[in-house]
């Protein structure tokens, strides 16, 4: 199915696949259930940016924040929504209209198909072949795992403080 507009990346999204179709770029949204897959007449950067904006930030902002936090200059992972485990990593430059974004949460394993092709197998046993070397994909998976730990650690440091502040605010009495 091809949709002109209106796309929704959700916790059930496995991959966001940018591709050239004729003279234009389209994006296939690969969902947990194959019958839920669909295409959007927008390039993948736009689809990812629209989704990020639904959560109150731009894709550019997430990429810059990830670069700063991880000290990564190329292909930084992003978290669209931490509470629903929406962590994605790009397999090439996120600025490319044909960029493929993979949901880190759903990756089960990978297989080397050739020097420049890798199969990504998801937890539901669906798979996606990408024209990227096995080592690049493994690096992206590891980089995203490290990023998830960093975000989790930051939240663990913040949460005890916020609970204390919330408790102190409850004890305050207004005149």
Automatic annotation (TrEMBL):
This is Competence transcription factor. It comes from Gracilibacillus oryzae. GO terms for biological process: establishment of competence for transformation. It comes from the Bacteria.
